Every structure is written in structure tokens, then in C-alpha cells.
């Protein structure tokens, strides 16, 4: 408990990640030590392998050897509650040491998860990674360290093979997401920076998308100072959805300053802009030709659109065929048909009928062609 207390004090005083020489600089997302200035105080933030990135599915290379992401022990609850902390930059939840990540070149042990979000219900953005130019409302990061090579996360995060982070893109929808209630319901208890509260343990895997198969994989960095370039990223192609009410609570519940600070600002828009890709390769575990990252809403819209289109087409075809049958002539409007057309004129028109049908569709021609013969 003591070491945890010290860790919390470090978090408050020195920023989210720890105690490097430069870490007494209080960074923010906007303002005098905003994200455009980070690299002046934290040199690695100006590096060539920074995160987040703007993922373009057409530029990602399909690697069929990438297995589905494999969370280990995420569903196991244990006897202890989890701890939720407002560290002034985000809400962070510590993760028990039995949780890990498999399917990677080394064994990774879970450390913490945290969120990034916007301020307008997701409308102005909020996620860190973007996919094909699309910003999501928020993003969940589950941080793991390479426990096969390093003793602890502080040692690992300075090494190029030190960390593995799962990124989950979050959108808003109509339904309450019960998994996220386990966090959002307790934000009221950690309104101010430096506050922590125990929360009942829950199934952490329920925060992840159902389908852990399709994801993007690339080498990048911490998305907050000191921006160490030590992260093997897994960004899931499938997003998860929380309700508008849940998103609003996440955006408005927390403050970035200490309790009692009169100028404490709402903790909002704590997301970093996409960084240059610089020759890095982004791998996709799935074929980007066939799988795209449509939301449920978009899929519904597409299905309804296609159905309406089909019905419209069927009605049109039905109407055309019916009209052709009832008029037994190429005249589509019965009223326009001459009442007493001389026989010669009608026969004159007959060849034209064939031409018209040929240019439209063959099946109709077959149905309609025999009709002029009584
Ligand atoms: C982390 O590990 C490093 C090297 O193995 C060690 O020097 C350091 O004291 C450890 N830090 C913590 C917080 O345990
Ligand atoms: C990440 O970097 C390591 C070490 O340089 C390399 O072996 C690996 O292939 C890279 N992974 C990706 C997805 O680019």
C-alpha cells in the first residue's frame, strides 16, 4: 500500500508516467506545454516512431501470420477491488498482475488501462488513432510490459521492446454498455486529480470488442510525455459503443486540477493528434480488401439502403412489365396510344419495339416479344 501511495504522489507531481529528469514539467494538451511543445521538454515526443497514427486501411499490409489478440486472465476477478485514479491527465485503472497478453514474441504482463476522450459527445473527435480519417468518440488503452525481459514497467517503458498496448476505438450509440458502467459509475468518486477510489473487480475482457481477430499492428510510442518509443501497438479494427449518456459522463465528470484548486479545468480533450508515420509499416491481421470498419449503424443503413433499392427496382420492373402487357405495344402510357391508328402505322412501329427492348434487358424482351401476336 505504501509503495502504491508513493506511486500516486509521483503520478500527481510528475505526470502520468514517472520521474525522469524533465518530468517536473507539467504538460497539458493545449496551452504553454501543449502537445505542439511537448518535444521541447520531452525530446522523444519529437521522434520518428510516435503514436498515435492515422491508420489507412489501404496502406496497411495484410500479414496472415498475425493471430487473434489473446488477453490472458482478463476475466478472472480475484479477491481485491480494482483501483481507479484521476491522475490529472486521464482516469486510470490498475490491473492485477495475473492479467497479461499472449500471442506476442514475449510474455507481457498487464499494468493499467486508461481512456482518452473529447468534449462534444464525440462529435469533435476524442480517439487518438484514426481509421481512414475517421476519429472516434474515445479510445481505451490497456498497457502491458514485457515481463520476460524486464523487472517492472518503469524499466520496460524505456526499451524498444518494453511495452504492448491494446487500443480500442469507442463510438457512441443508443445502448448503455454495461462493461463501461463498471468504470463510469465511479468517476464521481475521483473528480479531482490525485484522487483514487476502489471499485468492484469486473471482467476486463468485456471492455474489448467481441472479435479480437482483426487489428492493426505497428511500432510506436506512449501517446503522453515522455513519449517513449517502446510500444508494440494492437489497434482493433472493430470498435465498441457506449451510450451518449455514458460518453457525456466521461467527458464531464473529471477535473484536471487538485481538489480545492479554484482554477481547475474539466478534464477533456485529452487526446493527442496523429503523428507522422515516417516509413513505418502498419500490418493488418486481416485482408483490408474485404473487411472494413463499419459501425453497426452504418451496416444497418447500408442494409436498409440496399433493401429499399431492391424493392424500388422490383416495383419499377413490375410496373413496366404490367404496362407493356396491358398496352401490348411499345407505348407505355395508355392514354397516349392513338385510338384509331391506321394498321399500316402500327406495323411501321413494330421493328422499333425490338430495338427498344434490345437496349434494355433481354428477359423482358423474351416476355414481351410474343405479345403483339394476338
Ligand atoms: C524496476 O527495475 C529496475 C531494474 O530492474 C530497478 O532498478 C528499479 O528499482 C525497479 N523499479 C521499481 C519501481 O521497482
Ligand atoms: C517492430 O520492431 C521490431 C524490432 O525492430 C521488428 O522486429 C518488428 O517487425 C516491428 N513490427 C512491426 C509491426 O513493424
UniProtKB/TrEMBL annotation:
Query: What ranges does the record list as Basic and acidic residues composition bias?
Result: 343-368
The signal peptide, as residue positions, is 1-23
Pfam families, per the entry: Carb_anhydrase
Its catalytic activity? hydrogencarbonate + H(+) = CO2 + H2O
* Obligatory cofactor(s): Zn(2+)
EC main class here is lyase
Asked if the record carries the keyword Metal-binding, the reply is yes
Q: Which UniProt keywords apply?
A: Glycoprotein, Lyase, Membrane, Metal-binding, Signal, Transmembrane, Transmembrane helix, Zinc
EC number(s): the record gives: 4.2.1.1
- Alphabetized PROSITE patterns for the sequence: ALPHA_CA_1, ALPHA_CA_2
Coiled coil regions, renumbered to chain: none
Q: What does this protein do?
A: Reversible hydration of carbon dioxide.
Per the record, the similarity remark reads: Belongs to the alpha-carbonic anhydrase family.
Instruction: Supply the name of the protein.
Output: Carbonic anhydrase
Q: Which organism is it from?
A: Synaphobranchus kaupii
Amino acid at each position: 500500500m505504501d509503495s502504491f501511495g508513493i506511486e500516486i504522489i509521483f503520478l500527481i507531481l510528475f505526470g502520468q508516467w514517472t520521474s525522469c529528469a524533465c518530468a517536473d514539467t507539467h504538460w497539458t494538451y493545449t496551452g504553454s506545454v501543449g502537445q505542439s511543445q511537448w518535444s521541447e521538454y520531452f525530446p522523444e515526443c519529437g521522434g520518428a516512431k510516435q503514436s498515435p497514427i492515422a491508420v489507412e486501411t489501404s496502406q496497411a499490409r495484410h500479414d496472415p501470420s498475425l493471430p487473434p489478440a489473446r488477453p490472458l486472465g482478463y476475466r478472472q476477478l480475484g479477491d481485491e477491488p480494482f483501483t481507479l485514479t484521476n491522475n490529472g491527465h486521464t482516469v486510470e485503472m490498475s490491473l492485477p498482475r495475473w492479467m497479461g497478453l499472449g500471442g506476442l514474441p514475449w510474455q507481457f504482463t498487464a499494468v493499467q488501462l486508461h481512456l482518452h476522450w473529447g468534449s462534444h459527445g464525440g462529435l469533435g473527435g476524442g480517439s487518438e488513432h484514426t481509421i481512414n480519417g475517421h476519429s472516434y468518440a474515445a479510445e481505451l488503452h490497456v498497457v502491458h510490459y514485457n515481463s520476460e525481459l524486464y523487472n517492472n514497467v518503469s524499466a520496460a517503458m524505456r526499451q524498444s521492446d518494453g511495452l504492448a498496448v491494446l487500443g480500442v476505438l469507442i463510438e457512441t450509440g443508443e445502448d448503455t454498455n454495461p462493461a463501461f458502467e463498471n468504470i463510469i459509475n465511479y468517476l464521481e468518486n475521483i473528480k479531482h486529480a490525485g484522487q483514487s477510489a476502489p471499485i468492484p473487480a469486473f471482467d476486463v475482457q468485456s471492455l474489448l470488442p467481441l472479435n479480437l481477430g482483426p487489428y492493426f499492428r505497428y511500432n510506436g510510442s506512449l501517446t503522453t510525455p515522455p513519449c517513449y518509443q517502446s510500444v508494440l501497438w494492437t489497434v482493433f479494427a472493430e470498435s465498441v459503443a457506449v451510450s451518449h449518456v455514458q460518453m457525456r459522463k466521461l467527458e464531464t465528470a473529471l477535473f484536471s486540477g487538485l481538489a480545492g484548486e479554484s482554477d481547475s479545468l474539466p478534464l477533456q480533450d485529452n487526446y493527442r493528434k496523429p503523428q507522422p508515420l515516417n516509413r513505418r509499416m502498419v500490418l493488418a491481421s486481416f485482408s483490408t480488401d474485404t473487411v472494413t470498419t463499419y459501425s453497426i449503424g452504418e451496416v444497418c443503413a447500408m442494409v436498409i439502403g440496399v433493401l429499399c433499392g431492391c424493392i424500388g427496382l422490383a416495383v419499377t420492373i413490375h410496373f413496366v412489365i404490367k404496362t407493356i402487357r396491358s398496352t401490348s405495344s411499345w407505348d407505355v402510357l395508355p392514354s397516349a396510344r392513338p385510338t384509331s391508328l391506321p394498321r399500316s402505322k402500327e406495323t411501321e412501329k413494330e421493328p422499333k419495339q425490338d430495338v427498344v427492348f434490345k437496349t434494355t434487358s433481354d428477359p423482358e424482351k423474351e416476355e414481351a416479344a410474343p405479345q403483339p401476336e394476338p
